[in-house]
Amino acid sequence: MRILISGASVAGPVLAYWLTRHGFAVTVVERAPTLRRTGGHAVDLFRPAMNISEKMGVLPRIEERATGTDRMTVYREKARRPVRVDLSRIFSAASDRHVEIMRDDLSEIYHDATRDDVEYVFGDSITALPPDGEVRFENAAPRRFDLVVGADGLHSNVRRPVFGDEPRFKALTARTSGGP
Fold first, then answer.
1. Parent domain of 13
2. What is the DSSP string of 143-154?
3. Among 14, 48, 68, 144, which residue's beta carbon has the most beta carbons within 10 A?
4. What are the residue boundaries of the FAD-binding domain, all occurrences included (predicted)?
5. Closest Cα partner for 97 from 47, 58, 132?
């Protein structure tokens, strides 16, 4: 079975890793020309993600790149003093396993774990998903896949051809959830 994953940040490569381990041929398409290195933001991995990363064999690399952040100071407008928070206490209350890592570092680690077994296509994106399985791309020739997975974020190139334009989808979501 041939599977196409749209998005090479975190979810795409992790899914690709497990699908290839179960015998699927996986291609990941990413609209950015290379792995994104935008500075990103810190993300927190708790027990489930730590366990998955451990099974993937990448946990030591993740722990090497941990931010080590254990305190936070919040400065509130019109407040006399800042609020200081011991994050280690919050994290330990939530899970007995935790690490904070920059998103770009995490993305690179997961990509490195899959690059030998997964076809990565950078600098391209999905433009159409006809029912016959022949996926159309912005730059590459059409290709046939048995399954397409969108792991490409909030403004997904996979959602648009399947569900329609984002404003229409947001309006539908608001109506079905009791919103305006």
1. 2-176
2. EE-SEEEE-S-T
3. 14
4. 3-161
5. 47
pLDDT at residue 41 tops 70: yes
- Report the SS3 class of residue 8: coil
Q: Which two tokens stand for residue 117?
A: 């077994």
**Residue among 53, 143, 46 at smallest CA distance from 98:** 46
Strands 25-30 and 42-46: unpaired
Amino acid in position 64: E
CATH number of residue 69's parent domain: 3.50.50.60
Q: How many CB atoms lie within 10 A of CB 120?
A: 19
Total domains present in the chain:
1
HSE-CB for 13 with a 13 A CA cutoff: 22
The string of pLDDT tens digits covering residues 140-152 is 999 999 999 999 8
DSSP 17-80: HHHHHTT-EEEEEESSSSS--S---EEEEEHHHHHHHHHHT-HHHHHHTB----EEEE--TT-S
What residues form DSSP beta bridges with 138? none
Q: Which of 77, 75, 49, 48 is nearest to 62 (CA)?
A: 49
Instruction: Report how far residue 121's alpha carbon sits from residue 1's, in angstroms, rounded to the nearest whole number.
Output: 18
